[in-house]
Amino acid sequence: MKRKINVAVIMGGKSSEHNVSLASGREVVKNLDPKKFQVLPIVISRDGRNWRLTDKSSLLKIENTVVKTEPKKEIALQKSKTIEGVNSISKRPVDVVFIALHGKYGEDGMIQGLLELAGLKYTGSRVLASAIGMDKITFRKLMIVEKILIPKYVVVKKGENFKHVHKVLKKTPYFVKPSDQGSSVGASIVKKQKDLGKALKLAHKYSELALVDEYIKGMEVTCGVLGNEKPIALPVVEIVSKKDFFDYESKYSETGAEEIVPARINKKLTTKIQNLAIKVYKAVGARGFGRVDFILKKGVEPVVLEINTIPGLTSASLLPKEAKAAGISYPNLLDRVIKYALEK
Asked: What is the distance of C-alpha 286 from the center of its chain?
């Protein structure tokens, strides 16, 4: 009998996306095939200091963690124990670590570097690609080199005078966001010039640097990518938010946005977006899986917003929906991600 693959699924952590990460981790643990995998769920505390090994049943009993306001207390796990390190969690060595962390310390190369030092294989992109994908400023500089269309933008440092924004971007509206966050945390639309300071204050709550983008009106779409050396693009999703933009609440609420897959665009534009998504994925050096977000300027010109090297894996997340539209079930999607991680 073929032995099961030992998979440690890590979730939680220090970022502002702690709750999203827990939801992703739960979904991964729930859907990993027990006939193929020995699953070891690990929940990292909000301060990053405690790594607790729990069991599947205990993890699945906790309530939905994706809420707007984060509770101050840690989630209660019926069965858990503190571990010294990933290699010490089971009698058999861990074959692969499934990273279900989002945001800082999980998606930016930090945890990837730690696992590299430990000599452990892990899902998703390596250190450099993760860091580039998370740092929106570095990512955009790379896109300029690759001649890939991005929004016109201005970087504003915390405490810096921001009068130059108007000179560069001209009249409002603007789109303001932190330079190194995900899930639209700290992001907002500025409709009047006088509100720019307030929007920057919100963004600077999460990052020293904020991006002020030109506001591009158009259809918002996203395209998932799977693979290592020869990645493939998934069907394009059209996002119809019920708010001004696809914010945190819209992303993780079942009623926050309508997500249409395949997107209501012609075949030629679909192919263009998919090819661009692969080009972005390769330029960054991403591996395993990822998702590239776009806005369609005037309905026809794809403008790249960002890449997500660890897309959400909750029941409401986009990548699983794209995979399903391509005939890939959630368990099969996880199988593929792990397979890519185990490739040399």
From this structure: 13
- Both tokens of 261, joined, read 């897959």
Nearest-angstrom CA–CA distance, 206 and 197: 15
Tell me the average pLDDT across 289-299. 96
Residue 87 phi, psi (nearest 5): -70, -15
| CATH for the stretch 133-148+218-342 | 3.30.470.20
All CATH 3.40.50.20 domain ranges in the chain, comma separated: 5-122
CATH 3.30.1490.20 placement within the chain: 153-214
pTM over 0.85: yes
Nearest to 153 by CA among 306, 309, 308, 307: 306
Q: In this structure, is the dihedral angle defined by the CA atoms of residues 281, 286, 291 and 297, taken in order, positive or negative?
A: negative
Query: For residue 138, how many other CB atoms are within 10 A of its CB?
Result: 15
For 54-82, write each residue's pLDDT tens digit. Answer: 888 888 887 666 654 455 566 656 556 66
Indicate the SS3 state at residue 288.
strand
Question: Which one-letter amino acid corresponds to residue 88?
Answer: S
Residues in CB range of 259: below 8 A, 6 or more apart: 237, 238, 239, 240, 318, 321
